[in-house]
Structures are given as structure tokens and as C-alpha cells.
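Ticket #4471: structure output looks truncated?

Reporter: J.K.
Steps to reproduce: submitted the chain below (406 residues) through the standard prediction queue, then opened the result file.
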Amino acid sequence: MSTGSAQRTVRSTVFCLLVGIIFLAGYAPSATAAATHTRASGPRIPADPGATAGSERVRSAVSYLSLGRARLNIVSRHPPGVRWGGRTVYWYAGAGADGRLQRVMAGRTSETTPGVTQMTTIVTLPQAGRFRFAACFSAPMQDALGLGSSHGPCGRHHFRGPATSPYVGAGVAPTGYPGAGAIAAATGYLDRRSGYTSFAVIDSEGRISGKHLHRTFVSASVVKAMLLVAYLRKLAAERRGLDAGSRSLLDPMIHVSDNNAATAVWERDGDPRLRALARRAGMTDFSIQGIWANAQISAADQARYFFEMENLIPPRFRHFADHLLSHIAGYESWGIPAVARPRGWTVFFKGGWRGTGRGQLVHQIARLQRPGKRVAIAVMTDGDPTMGYGIDTIQGVAARLLHGRP
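Returned output as attached by the reporter:
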């Protein structure tokens, strides 16, 4: 092969798009940001039919979804002879204005028409604030665009492209409700209360915050919300509906926190079904040995469980479960519902209270909903001097979390 022929050989190298979009802080979940970048083509290579076609144009768009997620879409317009469809594309992301970008997932490019390559993914943004992301894929005929010398290979764990790439940029992930100020106020308040305490909040973007998130407590009646869902899942697995006998147990167990009804449901569910539900819900701190009231729980697990509960209940039983958890007896509707309902929230909740070796235990977990917003709060206390003191602690945390407009 002659030197000239060798120079005309098109190599397959790695094409890395590091695409950055500058977002405006406080974007609404439906907001979309887009940017277009143009890069001049490299040296023309006559052997490549697309090499003389000019430049590559990259358009990037980001759409915010619910629960802290974002859809990333990148469209590359290039010479039609360059075929980039069906390629494995690696996605990288990182929080902050600098630092390494870690690989978060892989996908496939698609060639929508000759000369147009698209890649799309959905990523979870673990925290609000600035972030960056990148996409990288192996592309033949890259030299037709003169990009081979400016990018390294895709990193196995971290993005290896240059920080000076024209595709580098920064973004701002939207902040959820409640915000950082409200969470700090609730944390400071809890620090001033006596007893053995913990709280967790899942904000409207699905991110968890709190104090002593994984500290474990005896559950008391809070676990009845798990008994309810485990029983409904058992009925669905057995292809049975809600008969009068089931309703006669589940209704008092939740509406007035009847312990005899809870024991009857637990005898039907058994510890294995509660453990299976805990695994399904992604709990890491749950354990049970013996009677239902002695289950061990954490604020983090229970807040996440209530936040995701709708997805754990068989669809045909969701209305029934929601009705029970939102119509608990008025004399038990202290704490979170007492704060949230006057502010326009629909509240699905369960409380628990009993004496322990530390003193009085008082817990409450709730999911709060209003159009376009969902929040979960778990407050756990033990060693309270009285039940009223524990209720005041829960109500004080809730009042600070729900301060201000959602």
C-alpha cells in the first residue's frame, strides 16, 4: 500500500461528546433547555464520501422529569456518509462545577435519518445544584470530522475526555420542596429536643435528607402500614378480592390502630411477608423477630416506603388503602396531619406510641400530596417524658419542614 493510500485510510477511533448545558436555577419540572454547538471539520479525506461535507452540528436538550430525574437528548448532524447508528454510548455525570465524571449508564445511538445520529437517556440527579454530564461512543470514520486527535477513549469508570473540550458545560438541577433552609431549621429544632430522635424527609424531587436517618427504633403501631400492604399483596397473589372478613380487620387496624386486628393480620401475613415487602421497598434497616410491634425500623426506610407506597400496593386495592390511611380517627390525627392539612395537603399517615425502657415512644410517618407535589416525612422519638412531648416534637419538625409555599 502506498503512503498516499495509507493516508486515505479512515481509522475507527473513539468519538466523545462532552455536552454541557447551562440551566437556569429553579427550572420547573417541565422546563427544557437546549444548546447548539458547531465544530469545523478536519482535513478532507477524498476516500471518505462524507469527509468533504463541511461541519458537524450538535444540538442538546434537557427536560426535567419528576423525582429528581432528567431526560438528556443529543442530536448530531454530520455528513451522511458517516454512519453512527447502533453504537454503544456511555453516559457520565458528576455533581459540582468540577471533579471527575463517573460512568452512570450505557445505551445505544440511533440514526434517525442519514446524517443524523441521536442518543437519549434518563438520569437521576442525586442532589440539587450544579452538575455536568458527558456521552461517549466508538464511532467509525471519525477522522472525516477531524475529531480523532482531540478525544481519548471512553473511560471504564470515569470520563477521560479533555476538560477543555468545547462540549464541556455546567447545569443546575432543580431544588425540591422542602428546601435546604427548611430542612436545616427542622434539624436545628430536633437538636434542641430531649430524647432519642430521628427524622427523614423525601422532598418533591425524591431526594432524602434528615438527621440520624438510619437510627433504628422499635416500630410500635407504625408497622401496621406495612401489615396493610403485605396483606393486600397476599390477596392479589392469591387472586382474591376484599371480602367482609378482610375489611373487618384492615379497617380498625388502620382507622383506630386496633392491636387485636393487627395481630390477626400479622398471623395471616407472617414475618416472611413483611421481610419480603421490606426488600421490595428497598429497606436496609428493617428487621423483625417475634410479634409485629417489636419490628425495628428507621426514619429513612419508612419515609422512602411511604413515598413509594402507591407502587407497592396492587392497583385494584390502591383506593382502599389510600382511603384508610387518609381517614384515620381524628383523635390520632395529631402531628404531621395537624400541620399539613391546613396548608392544603392531603395526608396519608400512620402513627405509633408505647412505653419503652427509655420512656415514652412516639412516631409518625406520612405521605403528603397536592397537585404536582409529593413529599414524605418520618419523625421518630423515644425517651420522651410524656406522649404530649413526643407529639410536640413531631409537630415542630413538620411545621419547620412545611414552612413557606411549596
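Triage note (M.O.): checked the attachment and the full C-alpha cell line is present. Residues 175 and 360 are 36 Å apart (CA to CA).
Status: closed, working as intended.
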